[in-house]
User: What shape does this take?
Amino acid sequence: MFGLGLSLTVGDFARIAREPRAVGVALATQILLLPAVCFALVVGSGLDPVLAVGMMLLAASPGGTTANLFSHLFRGDVALNITLTAVNSVIAVVTLPVVVNLAVGWFAPPLGSSVGLQFDKILQVFAIVLVPVVLGMLVRRLSPAVAARAERPVRILSAVVLVLVIAGALLAEREDLGSYLADVGLVTTLFCLLSLGAGFLVPRLFRVGYRQSVASAFEIGIHNSTLAIAVALTVLGDERLAVPAAVYGVLMFPLAAGVGFLLSRRAPTREPTVTA
Assistant: This one.
């Protein structure tokens, strides 16, 4: 999240006013549609209550910064990705606790009476999500040269952290890993493909430009699984809740690459940018 902040300026948030349709449709898809799709998947599949809450935690997490890279590779609107990641990371401070608490209330997982995001845990989410972003933005504001030099090493470190937290979450549950993969492998694959598809198709239905729709697809399909794992482990305190995000973190990159390849083959040769 600090690395994300190094890449952001206040102007990135101003894009909401310049391109309200693209931003609004993408955010509505991610904040409203995805949790509903995820809920239908976990209920329909009869998923274990603990894993079901873990899936809802994943669905409520904002887009990951790797979406920018995929958007760049497959000719999406990278600037829109940056704006969506910034705005959704701020909104997630509110929406993530709401979705998790609703999921805990509905699925009633056997995790103990303290599980859920009460006020003190919401403050922890705030600290994990928003404080590092603001600090990164301050560094860029006060010293752009330092931010520019630090951005690449921090991005590499973020990738290493992603690998380590996924490995750690899977290792912590190694005794039940086989059954977890059997339980959530199909669900996470379907959720990833539906996220990527909805991220592209819903904006197109609302006549958002092609490049912006590609950006939306990756922003919505590539979740910040590291954040979901961090919340599961440090805030909710249960490794089992991190398993869906860890499995998703492994699967989403090849799936996103495949979808990006398909989208690139259907890309129009010329299309005006829709900004209203």
